[in-house]
Design a protein that fits this description.
Blueprint lengths: L9 E3 L4 H11 L5 E4 L7 E2 L4 E2 L3 H7 L4 E4 L12 H19 L8
Length: 108
C-alpha cells in the first residue's frame, strides 16, 4: 500500500528576510504559513537584528500564503496567566484577521 507524503513550510516572526523568501517560494510554486505577531510590526527583532515587516506591507506581502498568529508580542506563555495568554491570542488574531481580510485559524 502506497502512502502519500506531505510536508509543510512555516516561518516565524514576520521579518524583512520574508520578502526574499516569498519571492523564491513564488518562483518555485511553494506555499507555506507565516506566523507573525501584530504587536511587533515595524519593530526591530532583537535576536535576528532585523526589522519586522511594517503593518502597511503585511497584506500585500503575504497574499497567497497563510498567515497565522504568533502571539501579540511573541510572549513566552509559560510565564503568563491564562487571562494574559487569552488576551494576547485574541488581540493578535483579531488584528491579523483585519489586516489580511480573512479569519486567522492557526497559531504557532
Amino acid at each position: 500500500m502506497a502512502y502519500k507524503k506531505y510536508f509543510t513550510l512555516s516561518f516565524d516572526d514576520g521579518v524583512e528576510h520574508d520578502k526574499k523568501l516569498i519571492k523564491l517560494m513564488k518562483k518555485y510554486g511553494l506555499s507555506g504559513t507565516f506566523n507573525i505577531s501584530a504587536g511587533l510590526f515595524g519593530k526591530r527583532h532583537l535576536l535576528a537584528r532585523i526589522n519586522h515587516i511594517p503593518k502597511d506591507e503585511i497584506r500585500q506581502l503575504y497574499e497567497g500564503f497563510e498567515v497565522a498568529s504568533h502571539g501579540y508580542r511573541h510572549e513566552m506563555y509559560l510565564y503568563m496567566s491564562k487571562t494574559k495568554i487569552e488576551r494576547s491570542l485574541s488581540t493578535d488574531i483579531q488584528e491579523l484577521s483585519d489586516i489580511v481580510g480573512y479569519p486567522i485559524a492557526g497559531h504557532a
